[in-house]
Each structure stands twice: as structure tokens, then as C-alpha cells.
């Protein structure tokens, strides 16, 4: 092969390499952009809870107290008329909450509870009533007093600010606890899946 031919081939190889790298890197950017829009798969949502057993009873109770408060307050602030996406996000949150809850034995129990009572996310009222119901299921197992779920709207309404904003939207979106809250009657097993 004459030397000229070598040079030409080398040039072609270099150009091809640069073009290929460019394609790869722009493809990479597209993939990175796609990766930020997380759509949790079933295996992510329903995977085994991996936190270790929480031995310290004081810590376990404090954690539980704080976690229930977060969960019930979140339901109280969930939209009355959620979009499909609002509902999907709440449902995903509940399953991820169950998977990641940092008391391992609590998490695994809670995951079983979710199998029996899938989260209801169609309205604020159904979400709040569902959360009250599963909390009562945990209360029963721990032999604690049950909560009257017909009072849930008033109880978590809400003490977490934003009241002025709420007055502004009150005409279109009635608040929990202002008479708009209709407690649902939850059925066992199959009945609940309709709500989710
Ligand atoms: C998902 C999850 C699973 C858990 N699993 C376990 C477990 O397996 N073992 C264990 O030892 N602990 C578990 N815990 C912790 C346990 O539920 C309690 O949080 C903890 O024992 C402290 O109880 P508490 O008496 O402070 O009341 P909590 O049950 O923490 O409740 C806090 C407050 O919420 C109100 N409340 C009570 N019931 C309801 C209801 N149904 N709806 C709305 N509000 C209500 C009451 O005002 C109550 O004082 C779990 C907690 C969570 C969040
Ligand atoms: C449990 O945790 C609490 C709070 O952190 C701590 O004061 C206590 O000593 C712990 N108890 C045990 C038995 O480790």
C-alpha cells in the first residue's frame, strides 16, 4: 500500500471516530434527559423492604408518630379533584414509602397491608380515609386504640400553613373539614382496588 493511501485511511478513521463519538454523546444526552423522568416500575414499587429491624422501641415509636403525621397531613392536602398524574404520584409514593420505611419489620408488615388494601387515590377524601383505615389496621395489630375515621378531616386540617392560599381557592376547591369531607366506607380486599 502506497503511503498516500495510509494517510487517507487514517483521515477517514479519524473523521469516523469523531462523528461516532459525537453521535454517542448526543445519544447519551437524550438518555440522560429521559432518565430524569422516573417512571417507577413494578419491581421498584413492590420490591422487598430492605431496612434492618429497628430494635430501639423509643426510636420506633417516635419514627412512627412522625411518619403517620406526614402521611395523614399529606392526604389532607391532596387535591380534592386530582389529575391522573396526582393520583399516580400519590400511589407511587405510598408504595415507595412502604418499601423504604426505615423500620424494616414495620415496612414488611405495611407492604402486606398494601396488598390487602391498595392505596385509594381518586380524591382527597378517599385517600385520607384509606390512610386512616390502614393506620387503624396497624393500631389493631399493636393493640392500640382505634381512631374514628369520620373525624379525620377535622383532625388533620391542618396546622401546616398556607391558609390564605386556601381561602383564595376555597370557592373551587372546598377544604377537608369544612363540611366537604365525605367519609368513605372501605370494603375489604377486592373492593378497594377500584379506588386505586
Ligand atoms: C407504616 C408504619 C408501620 C408501622 N409498623 C409498626 C410495627 O410493625 N411495629 C411497631 O411497633 N410499630 C410500628 N409502627 C409505629 C406505630 O404505628 C406507632 O407510630 C408507634 O407505636 C407510636 O404510637 P403512638 O401511640 O404515638 O400513635 P401513632 O400510631 O403513631 O399515631 C399518632 C397519632 O395519630 C392519631 N391517630 C391514631 N390512629 C389514627 C388513624 N387511624 N388515622 C389517623 N390518625 C390516627 C392519634 O392522634 C395518634 O396519637 C409503624 C408505623 C408506620 C408509619
Ligand atoms: C433508644 O434511643 C433513645 C433515643 O435515641 C436513647 O435515649 C436510648 O438510650 C435508646 N435505648 C436503647 C436501649 O438503646
From TrEMBL:
It comes from Pseudogymnoascus verrucosus. Its EC number is 1.8.3.2. The keyword Disulfide bond applies. Residues 56-156 form the ERV/ALR sulfhydryl oxidase domain. Residues 185-196 have a biased composition (Basic and acidic residues). This is Sulfhydryl oxidase. Keywords: Disulfide bond, FAD, Flavoprotein, Oxidoreductase, Signal. One of its GO terms (molecular function) is flavin-dependent sulfhydryl oxidase activity. Coiled coil: none annotated. It is an enzyme of class 1 (oxidoreductase). Residues 1-21 form the signal peptide. PROSITE patterns: ERV_ALR (PS51324). Residues 175-196 are annotated as: Disordered. GO terms for cellular component: mitochondrion. Its cofactor is FAD. It catalyses: 2 R'C(R)SH + O2 = R'C(R)S-S(R)CR' + H2O2. The keyword Signal applies.
Amino acid at each position: 500500500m502506497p503511503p498516500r493511501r495510509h494517510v487517507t485511511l487514517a483521515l477517514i478513521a479519524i473523521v469516523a471516530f469523531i462523528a461516532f463519538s459525537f453521535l454517542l454523546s448526543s445519544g447519551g444526552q437524550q438518555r440522560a434527559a429521559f432518565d430524569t423522568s422516573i417512571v417507577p416500575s413494578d419491581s421498584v414499587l413492590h420490591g422487598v423492604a430492605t431496612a434492618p429491624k429497628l430494635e430501639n422501641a423509643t426510636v420506633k415509636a417516635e419514627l412512627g408518630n412522625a411518619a403517620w403525621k406526614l402521611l395523614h397531613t399529606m392526604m389532607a392536602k391532596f387535591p380534592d379533584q386530582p389529575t391522573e398524574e396526582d393520583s399516580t404520584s400519590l400511589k407511587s409514593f405510598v408504595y415507595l414509602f412502604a418499601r423504604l420505611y426505615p423500620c424494616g419489620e414495620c415496612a414488611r408488615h405495611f407492604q402486606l397491608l398494601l396488598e390487602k388494601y391498595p392505596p385509594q387515590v381518586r380524591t382527597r377524601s378517599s385517600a385520607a380515609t384509606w390512610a386512616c383505615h390502614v393506620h387503624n389496621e396497624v393500631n389493631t395489630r399493636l393493640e392500640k386504640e382505634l381512631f374514628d375515621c369520620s373525624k379525620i378531616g377535622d383532625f388533620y386540617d391542618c396546622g401546616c400553613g398556607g391558609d390564605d392560599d386556601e381561602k383564595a381557592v376555597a370557592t373551587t376547591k372546598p377544604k377537608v373539614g369544612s363540611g366537604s369531607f365525605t367519609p368513605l366506607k372501605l370494603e375489604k380486599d377486592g373492593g378497594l382496588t377500584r379506588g386505586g
